[in-house]
Structure formats: structure tokens, C-alpha cells
Design goal:
- By secondary structure, the protein is mainly alpha-helical.
- The protein has a domain at about 5-65.
- It is built from 4 helices and no strands.
- It has helices spanning about 5-25, 30-35, 35-60, 70-85.
- The longest helix is centred in the middle third of the chain and has 28 residues, at about 35-60.
Amino acid sequence: MTKLLEWISGISAVFAVWYSLIAGYVKHPLIESNMKLILYSPLIFILLFAIYAPTVILYRVFTFNNCERAAKELQQEIRLAEKDLHGKGLRW
């Protein structure tokens, strides 16, 4: 199953439950007393996701690990490639 299909399946299931509560297919006093919250719950979830997504991105950016050894190795490979290209007649 692809990731897109997983997301579509999950969103469809949540939408089906939400719609059944809004349309009145499920009768319960607790549901009827919280109908305004149920009605606005998709907007609440979008707002919470809008807060969560940048927070996670910023956290991962700030805690990104540096690998000094890999950086030195990459710089050495770049110098070797430049020497090889220079030897083959490429001028820049």
C-alpha cells in the first residue's frame, strides 16, 4: 500500500465517522450536547496540524546532526574530481 493510499484511507474513515455524527445516524445525548464541537472539529484539526507541522520541521532543523568526518571526506573527493577534470583538459 502506498503512503498516499494510506492517507486517503485514514481521511476517508475519519470523514465517514464525522459525517455519520453530523447527519444524525448515531443518536446519543452526549453527541447531541457536543454537536457544535463535532461540527467544527475538522477546522480544529486543521489548525492543530498547522501548528504541529512547522514545529516538527523547526525541531528537526535545529537538532540536525553534523558529521565532520563525512564533510572532510566529501571535500577531499571534490578536490580529487577537480584534479581529474583539470587533467582531462577542463578549464574553469
